[in-house]
Amino acid sequence: MLVIMSAGIAPGLALLSYFYLKDEYDSEPIHLVFRTFLFGALLVFPIMFVQYVLSVEGIFVAPWSKAFISTAMLEEFFKWFILYYTIYLYSDFDEPYDGIVYGTSVSLGFATAENILYLIGHGVEYAIGRALLPVSSHALFGVLMGYYLGKGKFSTEGKRPLYIFYALCIPLLLHGSYDLILLTSDQWIIWMVPFMIFLWWLGLRKVKNAKKLTEVHVYERSIS
């Protein structure tokens, strides 16, 4: 069990540390990042229950509806909801890059709890594959969600609702696409490799953009 717990937790903590340490200015309080991570982990249980009920009742049977509604929409909406109502509205969210820290935190909390449960049920031999695909993809969905929340928080009033909308819809569409590949293709690895390369490219590009936005924000704050 110790091996499974270690293998389940390690990828999420490694990725969270990576994105957290890229915050070069006012690093976020560890207790707040951990709290957000814990909220994400706790989301797994109600979402799994709802997904189980939807599956038993046969409400979403088509692959696209399973991918985009019973998986992507449920998971990304509740992560977005947690971020918006526990982080976005409060003063600790004071730089654009903070969105990425908290976005990856809630997503990796969810991914870590899900990963532990999967490894308990299927065995530790799946740990590497899980780290490279589900855990990494959740981290990158969190990067995108956090990026647009961060951009929205420090944009003009007119643009703010659009970025908040992007923060939900872009991760949802990418998450649904990820699951649709797994559900519909026997040769899913052929499609998944370029998809993950694209996702990493997009996520790291948003990290770079968020750091630039933060530099501008810190400069403007220092001279005001």
TrEMBL record:
Does the record bear Mitochondrion in its keywords?
no
Q: Per its UniProt entry, what is the enzyme's top EC class, as one word?
A: hydrolase
Chief subcellular location equals membrane
Q: Name one GO biological process term.
A: proteolysis
State the source organism's domain of life: Bacteria
Keyword Lipoprotein belongs to the record: no
The way this protein sits in the membrane is described as:
Multi-pass membrane protein
Among InterPro entries, the record links this protein to: Peptidase_PrsW_arch/bac, PrsW
Residue ranges of the TM segments: 6-21, 33-55, 67-87, 127-150, 162-182, 188-204
Which UniProt keywords are present, listed alphabetically?
Cell membrane, Hydrolase, Membrane, Protease, Transmembrane, Transmembrane helix
Q: Where found, per UniProt?
A: Cell membrane
Coiled-coil residue windows: none
Mind listing the GO molecular function terms for this protein? peptidase activity
Q: What is its EC number?
A: 3.4.-.-
Q: What does this protein do?
A: Involved in the degradation of specific anti-sigma factors.
Q: Which family does it belong to?
A: Belongs to the protease PrsW family.
Q: What's the name of the protein?
A: Protease PrsW
Q: Which organism is it from?
A: Bacillus carboniphilus
Give the lineage. Bacteria, Bacillati, Bacillota, Bacilli, Bacillales
Gene name as annotated: prsW
